Amino acid sequence: MELRSVEELMDLLYACRGAWDTPDRSGDPVDLHDHALQTAALLRRSRPADKELQVAGLVHDIGHLLQPGDDAGHADHAADAVRALLGERVAHLVLLHIPAKRYLAASSPGRDLSAQSAVTLRTQGGPMSPTEAAAFERDPLADDAITLRQADDAAKVVGLDAGVLEDWRTVLGIVAARNSRLPNSRLGAVD
Q: Taking a C-beta distance cutoff of 8 angstroms, is the pair 52, 175 a contact?
């Protein structure tokens, strides 16, 4: 699925309310909607000028909704869905949030992961080998991906008020207007 407008993306993000990272709800303690808002809010706080990073945090797990149960491929599905609308950097950051988890598991083996993240780490390839870690470090977006991953790991707090999804519509419109490969008339950006 390729998202063609901010409105389509907003509809998908609203559909994350009551949707979980595992079909049987045995995974993380917050739904995909709250997780997205928390991740984006943490990134807004730590990197207020980097709208693309914040948006990557907002959309990084929509692949769970697009292909339920595909933990290993959810980042690919999400990146493919947003690439044309939000640009290559956002898509690449979304794609890298899994390798960043594997990298951090290798470079900081004692760091805390949620129970679900520990389970999915195994299906996603486990901690990186030294060769994989060296390749990851050479990616120009590696540091930003690590920042996204750290926010992702922290954004699983039940009951945390991270704002409302509608607050992100304008930011999504700005990022889409700057980066989209779609005709402007299709973006659906807010005036």
A: yes
